[in-house]
Fold this sequence. Notes:
The structure holds 2 protein chains of 2 kinds. Chain A is mainly beta. Chain A is built from 1 helix and 6 strands; from the N terminus they run βββαβββ. Helix content of chain A is 9%, strand content 33%. In chain A, strands 3-4-5-6 form a 4-stranded antiparallel β-sheet, with no helix packed on it. Chain A has a two-stranded antiparallel ribbon with strand order 1-2. In chain A, strand 4 and strand 5 form a beta hairpin. Chain B is globular and about 65 Å long. In chain B, strand 9 and strand 10 form a beta hairpin. The interface between A and B is medium-sized, with 29 and 27 residues.
Amino acid sequence: MLLIYCPHCGEHRDEEEFHSKGQAHIARPLDPDNCTDKEWGEYLFFRKNPRGLHHELWIHATGCRKFFNVTRDTVSYEIKEVYKIGERPSVVATAS
Amino acid sequence: MQHYSGFGLLKHALHYHEDWQRVWRNPTPKKKYDVIIIGAGGHGLATAYYLAKEHGITNVAVLEKGHLGGGNIARNTTIVRSNYLWDESAALYEHSMKLWEGLSQDLNYNVMFSQRGVYHTCHTLGDMRSNERLVAANRLQGIDNEMVDAEQLQKEIPSLDCSKGARYPIMGASVQRRAGNARHDAVAWGYARAADALGVDLIQNCEVIDMEISEGKITGVKTKQYGVLKADRVGCVVAGNSGVLAKMAGFELPVESHPLQALVSEPIKPFLDTVVMSNHVHGYMSQSDKGDLVIGAGIDGWVGYGQRGSYGIIEHTIQAIVEMFPCTSRVRMNRQWGGIVDACPDASPIISDTPVKNLFFNCGWGTGGFKGTPGSGNLFAHTLAHGKPHPIAEPFSMYRFHTGALIDEHGAAGVAH
């Protein structure tokens, strides 16, 4: 069970209040009309699935209903940092 | 291979069961194989078996980083069924079901396949409609599936609360009577024994740490314990760790790995002779031959490799089970565990070639891989033997996520594993 800090509410809350929305920082194609099927497919469906540090998008679904980012270890489940949309993570994987 | 039979059991009893043959060898790997399969779980072992049996390719190694049959084949809730919605998946799971029906004889190993039926309960009009659609689709595909109303359901499963007083009253159910369950470990052991007997090398405690790729073509794998092992073709069947191996090969997959949980109760007297699942209240249950209630749960929505799940999921699942079976409210839970499932966005698996030549992936079975074990192995063996997919496996290419030809089975997959 995760205890997650919501940067908008400024409080730690139970995981039940939140919803994980998957990988963070997925850039929408800049020129969607000229994307190939492959580019669209990769944008929509292909994901990093790291064993280790992962940057994720979360929503405080039953709280403030705002989105934010989390850097979390996918093996220990430890949350390394929480940061707002538009910010960059400060904890990043060394290799890759 | 020593043939197992009732007579053999009697014969060995005379020797106090002290002279049974080893079930499989423990070989040191050769430097070069025709095919290397990574992952000695159910699907990997089944692949090796069918490669040797149906395609005559016996110079095969199955590499396993831990012990064989120690992943999801040891952790699942053993449900087997083939009532999926779309023709592509129905063909795949029915292919598997037909293999299940003769598996114990084929392997000379009792996998305890029990066709005790699987019920999907419906609690809303929407549930009823989608299940009726599923039943109609299955009948067109030649797969057995039928609807029963609440009254009939109450007769068939007396312990299920089909009253109007339930919080989410049951309106009816669909039931596939050929569905059921099997002894999960026996499936891995049976395939391992049969593959070994045909000459396949099962290499346990052998972790793949890199892929040997030159000019876009795989030539072997690098292992922690035995260095580089060469192979003409490599098949990855590593479930939750597929993403990790794909990264070694330099590409991404349309899969995400999630923890999926299950739990069993203390053993109690037999009271449930079938499998009941509800997509609506989200839980499912059967009773094992030992008497424990085998209860299944949902996945955690986030990526996780920890082989354990959240407490919240257990709580929701138990709520659903007590809602459906009020008589279980005082049963104590004995064990709870998690496994890592690799889920595709369309809830259908991937049996596919990859951007790397001669490297093939069989993954993305998500929450429902157990039922697919024989079919998956059988079709993947064909893919590895011929270098191109079997017609049934063809729609399950990873490139369907480029073309858009998805096989959306979220409805039929549901909670039902």
